[in-house]
Design a protein that fits this description.
This protein folds into three domains: about 120 residues, Beta-Lactamase; about 160 residues, Alpha-Beta Plaits; about 250 residues, TIM Barrel. Helix content is about 45%, strand content about 25%. The protein contains 20 helices and 21 strands. The strands form three sheets. The chain has an eight-stranded mixed beta barrel, surrounded by five helices. The protein has a six-stranded antiparallel sheet with strand order 3-2-1-6-5-4. Strand 5 and strand 6 form a beta hairpin. The longest helix is centred in the middle third of the chain and has 22 residues. The structure holds ligand C2E and calcium ion (2 copies). One calcium ion binds next to loops.
Amino acid sequence: MSFSDDFMSVILSMESVLIIFFDEENGCQLVCNKTKLDIDATKSESWVDLFGDIVFEEDKESFFVFTNKISNGMRGNEDFVAISDDRVGVSVRLKKKNSVYSYHNIVCYISKDAGAYINKMTIVASEMTAEELYRLQLAQNVTNDRTPTMFIRVANEIVRQHPEKQYALVQFDVAKFKAINEMYGEPFGDEMINFFIESLNVLCTSNQIFVRLTADVFMIMLPYETSQDLLDFVEIVRTNLTGYKNIEYRLVFGISYIKDVNENLRKYGDRAALARQSIKSNAIEYVAFFEESMKQNVLSSKYVEDHMYKALENHEFVMYLQPKFDMGSERIVGAEALVRWIQPERGVISPAEFIPVFEKNGFVIKLDAYIWEEACKTIRVWMDNNIEPVPISVNMSRAHLKNDKHLNILDSLIEKYGIPKELLEIEMTETIEGDEVTQGIIKLKERGFTLLMDDFGSGYSSLNTLKDTQFDVIKIDREFLQNFVGSDRGKIIVDHTIQMTKSIGLDVVAEGVETLEQANFLIGSGCKIAQGFYYAKPMPVVEFDNLLDENRKK
Ligand code: C2E
Ligand code: CA
Ligand code: CA
């Protein structure tokens, strides 16, 4: 009798529970209805063989993400061993004896020795109870409501039943989920979310309830004793929910303690959301607790919105220039225009604080045009004063591409100041290009502008974007550079990125060069132009003029 047949018959005859033990000495043992079987569960193929036929087609992907994790763990795979969680799980539809599929929770409990190596795993599969099934269905519906009534009702009930306990709200979402949808298609995004829901359903116990708030935002209410409990929980969710189909994505979490159970839960939900949003732009952190200062951030965006029109009128927005250097000759060969808000009461405000707000409210369109004009004016002044001009690259928010107005603005600026087009270059961030955007970029190209792809290496589809790109120059992202140049493998990646970019005929500018070592490495890789604090910071135009003058005298 082949092993697989036997296994199948066991599975098909089981009522509800299947147990697989793994321990280092005895290997893997399957115990079900007192039958023992040996399987080589360290091989992912064994799992496919065993479960291929009984897992519901649509659930196979999530299931094998789960079994891969387990077989990795059994092989003592470093990545897995490092994970601090004590269980992983998934819920999938399995075929039962009567050939009907029904939802099962499959949970793998992990125990580790003192050296943190896995020495035992117990996998339990059990059919979902009616209540669990109900919760799963509940969660599969998006509420699109910040105070989902069903969730609130259940949450309040739980809190009332356990007045002795403390509760917290954990919110999480996928950073740049939109990019995943754009790149892999919405059906894939949906599948991934479904995988989240099924996993959460297993991970959350009956007093940890979760809800899907919007497309990719989930919220969980759970009891805790110490903050560490909450961080442990986040870690479990994070390790279980990342790695779907080996796609790279990042989950970000925000936590808010429910301080007063009599208050509206919405308040705490909003706080968890603020905490979550506070780490969106931070590539290293992935979890934050709510702090009062996060409210300040909201106030500050309100401040920004209240003051922006006046500020534009009063010329509080000032163009700074950061020189671009030819690293070999150390000559200045260009500049990037970067806006600063010089506010009479608050001093210099960095664009990181206001550009995101302006991107949302559309004001960035006005501000960009203002900076473009400043750049053109500056070039004109250079020409009038017999200073040999260098090209200035200006930033263009993607918001412009919604229509063609920016084309007219650019054309009329070029005309008004009578400057050669080559001297005004345009920087735009890389993302996956929808049709509309591609068209917009083609039009800019047709008008003869030089296009620089900003922040290359920071997004999801760096290589994809290069395939049919209209851009002329790639600007290697600061974080990409700094994260990679620190290690040997990273260096190889940056090196090849530069080679590849050049061999398809694009120029390369390295951004955020901070050390001589980085500069030397880049030169060695064939990158000639750099912009970074090692050479110079962004500065007011007068200072730039002086620097340019000195640089040319050398
Ligand atoms: P960006 O376009 O990627 O600009 C480069 C940023 O990196 C600048 O930050 C610059 O000061 C900084 N930087 C350059 N070299 C180094 C370095 O060696 N080390 C470090 N740590 N940083 C370096 P800044 O000026 O704060 O601008 C931030 C972002 O704000 C810009 O990123 C750009 O996305 C946006 N921005 C700035 N001005 C404008 C504008 O006029 N229009 C639009 N739409 N966005 C703008
Ligand atoms: Ca830029
Ligand atoms: Ca950049």
